[in-house]
Write a structure and sequence with these properties.
Helices cover about 50% and strands about 0% of the residues. By secondary structure, it is mainly α. It has two domains: about 25-155, Peroxidase, domain 1; about 165-300, Peroxidase, domain 2. α2 (about 35-45) packs antiparallel against α4, α2 packs across α5 (about 115-130) and α11 crosses α13 (about 275-285). The longest helix has 20 residues, at about 1-20. The structure holds protoporphyrin IX containing FE and 2-acetamido-2-deoxy-beta-D-glucopyranose (5 copies). One 2-acetamido-2-deoxy-beta-D-glucopyranose binds near residues 78, 86 and 97.
Length: about 325
């Protein structure tokens, strides 16, 4: 009797150790590289004011990283013989690679081989959004870097702008995220830009008959065709996703969606399911603080997708290459 209790306690202890090893923790680098988080935050604060649009690129990079093989910085790897995630179109994200590389070299100079590129992406995304006046969220650390990056996997996992609500739901579910997370994380489209080619089929050739997407406000569509995306092949013009408010992390994206002015089918899709539609309305009726708090919960969840910890993966020396 007593003996079996000892075993129970022992097993519980072992389980506790195993689970803490497999989890991220706040301040993982407190002893191994105490200044790491500060170095990142300082760099972001010094540079983001000159390039606030990078905040959008960096949060999107975090999203794309997490949706392919977990948050493991696979998005930063350069192609070798196979095409890497980096090469997946649309790739506006490219602008952020250099920013991350510069931060990595500062952190490496302080503590070589300690801080993962995966954690640097997560922290940089958070700090950049916060530095531009947006929400703040917790970033537990201890992620390790992956060694594989694959274009096909990116294509199969990252949601596309033309996806319907069913496909979006399943792509999010594959990552352990639900419809609530879909609505909240789509709220990041309150900042940033898109190339015309990401949605021009909605303006010019929705079903292959030279038609327009009926779920896009026709006045808005006309406006876009007249002043922005002047033909279906325009692959250089960029459009604000939340016009007039693309630098402010506010609720106006949801307002656009409700007015049927969401730029992508994936934005419009939020109106085509009763759960997501109700949530959009609820967010619009709530405060900005409420949106920030709910957004934080979802992005904290996103930041934990399939993370590699403990002895899995590696700490890359250079974010674009696996260690040799
Ligand atoms: C729900 C599925 C999603 C789809 C289909 C989607 C699709 C897209 C597309 C097509 C673009 C424009 C890219 C280009 O034209 O080069 C874009 C931009 C952007 N996305 Fe998403 N996205 C989704 C979810 C998210 C999430 C979860 C986040 C972050 C939490 C996010 C953040 C952004 C940001 C900030 C931009 C602007 C990038 C910039 O200005 O550099 N998106 N998205
Ligand atoms: C890695 O790829 C980036 C962009 O994808 C490019 O700018 C950079 O030059 C590449 N680095 C090397 C060393 O090939
Ligand atoms: C971005 O995507 C385009 C189109 O697929 C591709 O040709 C280009 O090489 C990519 N750019 C980078 C820097 O990876
Ligand atoms: C959503 O898209 C998928 C894949 O293209 C398709 O099989 C499915 O029928 C669509 N669902 C709805 C509700 O339109
Ligand atoms: C619209 O799409 C159809 C089918 O893909 C194609 O045959 C047609 O040429 C397209 N029209 C335009 C204007 O791009
Ligand atoms: C953009 O379109 C032009 C003309 O259609 C084409 O030559 C060019 O390769 C395209 N660029 C990209 C990045 O797709």
């Amino acid at each position: 009797m007593k003996m079996s209790n000892y075993f129970k306690v022992l097993i519980l202890c072992l389980l506790a150790v195993a689970s803490t090893q497999a989890q991220l923790q706040l301040g993982f680098y407190t002893y191994s590289c105490p200044s790491a988080e500060q170095i990142i935050q300082n760099f972001v604060h010094e540079h983001i004011h000159n390039a606030p649009s990078l905040a959008a690129t960096l949060i999107r990079m975090h999203f794309h990283d997490c949706f392919v093989r977990g948050c493991d910085a696979s998005i930063l790897l350069n192609s070798t013989n196979k095409q890497a995630e980096k090469d997946a179109p649309p790739n506006l994200t490219v602008r952020g690679f250099d920013f991350i590389d510069r931060i990595k070299s500062l952190v490496e100079a302080e503590c070589p081989g300690v801080v993962s590129c995966a954690d640097i992406i997560a922290l940089t995304a958070r700090d950049s959004i916060a530095a531009t006046g947006g929400p703040y969220w917790k970033v537990p650390t201890g992620r390790r870097d992956g060694v594989i990056s694959n274009l096909v996997e990116a294509r199969n996992n990252i949601p596309a702008p033309f996806h319907n609500i069913t496909t979006l739901q399943s792509r999010f579910a594959n990552q352990g995220l639900d419809l609530r997370d879909l609505v909240l994380l789509s709220g990041a489209h309150t900042i940033g830009i898109s190339l015309c080619t990401s949605f021009s089929n909605r303006l010019y050739n929705f079903t292959g008959k030279g038609d327009q997407d009926p779920s896009l406000d026709s006045e808005y569509a006309t406006n876009l065709k007249t002043f922005k995306c002047k033909n279906i092949n325009d692959n250089t013009t960029i459009v604000e996703m939340d016009p007039g408010s693309r630098k402010t992390f506010d609720l106006s994206y949801y307002n656009q969606v409700v007015k049927r002015r969401g730029l992508f089918e994936s934005d419009s899709a939020l109106l085509k399911n009763s759960v997501t539609k109700a949530l959009v309305t609820q967010l619009l009726h709530g405060s900005l603080e409420n949106f920030y708090a709910e957004f934080a919960k979802s992005i904290e969840k996103m930041g934990q997708i399939k993370v590699k910890t403990g002895s899995h993966g590696e700490i890359r020396k250079h974010c674009a290459f696996v260690n040799s």
